[in-house]
Amino acid sequence: MLALLIFTVGLLHAHAVSMMNSTGTVNEEGVCQCSVILPDNTFPADRLEVLEVSSRELSTSVHQEIIKIQNYQATLTEYIFKLKNLTRRVEIIELGGISYTELDFELLKIEIREMESLVVKLKQSFNGSSTLVESLFVEIHNIAAMVNQLESYDKNNVLAVRREIASLRKKLEDCKKNQDIPTLPPVSYGTCNHGGLKNISKPFVVQLNWLGFTYKFGGWGKDTLVGAGQDLHWMSPLSTDARIMNIIRSYPTYEDLLLYKRPSDMVLSKTLPRNNIDYTSCGQGGGMILFNNSMYYNCYNTRDICKYNLNTGTVERKTLTDATFNNRFSYSSSLWQDIDLASDEDGLWVIYSTEENSGNIVIGKLNPITLSMEKTWVTTQYKPAVTNAFMICGVLYATRTLSTRQEEIFYMYDTKTNKDLKTSIVFDKMMENVQSVNYNPNDHKLYMYNDGYLVTYDLSFKPKENLS
């Protein structure tokens, strides 16, 4: 087509030239001369071709942009629909609509009512009384009360409650299968009328420490003196460097702890002139324990044991001879806990290591008044291979990590027989690292500080005849 156009234009151009008039002259030699002026009408065919290619490319580009705009329009339409739907959901929530958490609690209540009905049937199926069934009945009532508490105070613990309910359901099923098996008499609190630790319950998360997630190290619990009042709960998060124990916070009741109400703070450091800080009365590590309304702990930057009276605020201290300190032989999952205080039915203990014993655990019986050492026992268990330890009826129980969600009590030392034993009691944990574990003889519970969370465990014991 382009060639035909050029050819036609050429013919027209030639015809125009032939039609033009011209004038001429004769030179001296008789030769005729003439001049012809041609118009400059040369057609730019190459430029027209470039223009045609550019036009095609522009047309393709415009078509692609139109497709993109259509896609954007479809996407915008979809997002407008989602936004309207989200707006409706937010309006429902603002108007008091049912949330997923509330539905979860309703399901929990239904499950509890079903278990209550099953327990009633079990009680009727027994000819006489059953201690196990009665205990289950009490536990179900306790879990019901706990659900009501959590619904009011702490709705983030739904999963923990579900674990408790799953454990109770399993107990009910086991009870139904083994109705003819005699149950063991309950162990009296504060006594050693049993054959040693048998099992550990699922963890129960009570609360996150009031300072938050970043304060992963510390300790908590109740007074461990046998017969002491059990209303007051204490916690002591360490500084974020996992070392300094500078504050002890107490709550007068369990409900106050759940709501962070009516706290009482005791600050151990003192401010000196020129903004210097005196850490003399502070502690280090998570080895603290409350015994007879006094907090016992490893004094900061020393091998001393400090005793802080909660009533008077006075501090007494005594050097623990030969004990290593300042992270020389701490536990594997918690720093600065070279000296760990413990308590049980027999009184106050200290768990530590010495250079002479090459880092193996030494158990010391402490006089709670004078802080003097009454007797020591040297074990064969290397302390840095242990995640934590506690005492029950004069027996040391040491733990180690199996996984991010399980611990194992793997070692025991009986101070009455001077024998160490290997054992295996596996229990779950909420978070990966165990920072401190305290046993309380007044309720047979373990109080664990677990990556900033306050966690409890219920303990069960063997009958006394199985002491060996």
Automatic annotation (TrEMBL):
<dbReference type="GO" id="GO:0007165">
    <property type="term" value="P:signal transduction"/>
</dbReference>
<protein>
    <recommendedName>
        <fullName>Olfactomedin-like domain-containing protein</fullName>
    </recommendedName>
</protein>
<keyword id="KW-0175">Coiled coil</keyword>
<keyword id="KW-0732">Signal</keyword>
<feature type="domain" description="Olfactomedin-like">
    <location>
        <begin position="191"/>
        <end position="463"/>
    </location>
</feature>
<dbReference type="InterPro" id="IPR050605">
    <property type="entry name" value="Olfactomedin-like_domain"/>
</dbReference>
<dbReference type="InterPro" id="IPR003112">
    <property type="entry name" value="Olfac-like_dom"/>
</dbReference>
<feature type="coiled-coil region">
    <location>
        <begin position="69"/>
        <end position="125"/>
    </location>
</feature>
<keyword id="KW-0964">Secreted</keyword>
<dbReference type="Pfam" id="PF02191">
    <property type="entry name" value="OLF"/>
</dbReference>
<dbReference type="GO" id="GO:0005615">
    <property type="term" value="C:extracellular space"/>
</dbReference>
<feature type="signal peptide">
    <location>
        <begin position="1"/>
        <end position="16"/>
    </location>
</feature>
<dbReference type="InterPro" id="IPR011041">
    <property type="entry name" value="Quinoprot_gluc/sorb_DH_b-prop"/>
</dbReference>
